[in-house]
Amino acid sequence: MFLSLPPRYDLINRIITFGLDGRWRRLAVRACLENGPQRILDIGCGTGDLTIGLALMAGKNAAVTGLDYSPPMLVLARAKAAQAGVAEKVNFVHGDATELPFPEASFDAAAISFAFRNLTYKNTGQARHLAEVRRVLRPGGRYVIVESSQPANPIIRALFHLYLRVFVAPVGIRLSGQRNAYRYLVESARHFSSPEEVREMLLEAGFREVTYRPLLFGAAGLHTATR
Fold first, then answer.
1. Cystine design at 51: which of 35, 56, 66, 142 (Cβ 3.0–4.6 Å)?
2. Cα(first)–Cα(last) distance of the chain, in Å?
3. Residue 39's beta-bridge partner residues?
4. CA-CA distance, 166 to 169, in Å (whole number)?
5. 25-66, pLDDT tens digit by residue?
6. Cα Rg for the chain, rounded, in angstroms?
7. pTM of the full predicted structure?
8. CA-to-CA dists, residue 98 to 124, 160, 175, angstroms
9. Fold exhibited by the domain 9-34+96-226
10. Model confidence pLDDT, tens digit, residues 56-104
């Protein structure tokens, strides 16, 4: 479904998050750049919002790579990077997140925004993806994840799941025309791992210093882990 890019893809994301996805990505950018990395990878970069944010805020000598397996998304990402004036600082690569086309220890930091769920929820490639991220990070490199989450408060969690069903699904389907895609988005977000389960997932993959910051009462979350 990600190979068929809706013309309003970015607009839909803004609408269903009330514009908060941009703020959450900026938090991810700051977390990713905290230790001054020079080589940065954005996994599942989509249309390039996080990649461009990293390029704009990173040091002048930093190099940012955005990887995605959807060619239509990469076309749009390259155009957006050129418009933002960072085309020379960014390299967009077509590839698979479970078989990253980079040598071991290629990056000082890696980030992923709202694609981690797709790589781990009912995905048989989950372990391969985490192993690949760990492989391409240098020792001490940071992995930053911003993703939907599960609010700890049961009332807020119920309201969040209701919002997914009665707002996100109808709006996404109406604006995109892709019923299956937005049904999947709602289903995967409703049943995605809790912060504790994500923490265990990362620790079992060999990461350390795993942290979590809830966003919007836990409807989304910012995870960090160290290679």
1. 66
2. 32
3. 63
4. 6
5. 999 999 999 999 999 999 999 999 999 999 999 988 999 999
6. 17
7. 0.94
8. 10, 30, 31
9. Rossmann fold (3.40.50)
10. 999 889 999 999 999 999 999 999 999 999 999 999 999 999 999 999 9
